[in-house]
Structures are given as structure tokens and as C-alpha cells.
Amino acid sequence: MGPSQGKQLSPQLRQRVLTLFQKFDVDGSKSIEKNETIKYWYFIAINGRKSNFAKLNTEELFKSVDTDNSGTISEDEWLNFWEEVYKSGHTEDEIIEELESIESGSSWCKFENMKK
């Protein structure tokens, strides 16, 4: 499927993306810090959902999403990342599948066709 230039995430998917952001942003600061993502993936692993690599997942997440290299991911950066995933040709179903995968503790994936 070709890129979806000019399209935006549906309101339902946008809310789902923000809900995952809030799971990472445990202190409610409207930004995600590396220690928060590490704790998130460790928590998932400790609760027996999946074995994972919390530090590696965190580094890959930040390489993909922290576009200003500030060491934190703002809510805007998070939303922009998922908008770009959609615009690059991935479907909302594919994005939902990835969000569910992250929620269950799977590794962060790199999306094809993404600008960086």
C-alpha cells in the first residue's frame, strides 16, 4: 500500500496512541524519560508477560521517536512519530497490532519506509 500523505490517525487510534504514551509517562510530566521506559519494560517482564531487553528497547525507541535528541520524548514527538508511521504507508490495523505488541511487552520494532 502506498503512503497516506496528508492523512491523520483516526480519533480512536490517536487516543490509543496517547493511552500508551501515558503508560510510559508514569510521572504525568507529558514527556517520557528513558528511566520510565526501562521501568515499563522491566515491569512487563517481571509480571511474566514476556522476556525482553528493557535497555535495548528503550534505546531503539528513543532513536526512532526522540527527534530533537533531548533525551525525553514529548507527547508531540510521540504523536508525530505515529502519524509518520501512518503516512509512510502502514495501516491503522498494523499500528494497532504494534501498540498491542508493545503493551504486551514485545520488543520495539523499526518501521520500514520511515524518514529519519
Helix and strand arrangement:
Layout: H1 11-24, E1 31-33, H2 34-46, H3 54-65, E2 72-74, H4 75-87, H5 92-103
Antiparallel strand pairs: 1-2
Helix pairs in contact: 1-4, 1-5, 2-3
Structure description:
With 116 residues, the chain is mainly alpha-helical. α1 packs across α4 (75-87) and α1 packs parallel to α5. The chain is built from five helices and two strands. The protein has a two-stranded antiparallel sheet with strand order 1-2. It is globular. The longest helix is centred in the first third of the chain and has 14 residues, at 11-24.
Quick recap:
It contains five helices and two strands; from the N terminus they run H-E-H-H-E-H-H. The chain is mainly alpha-helical.
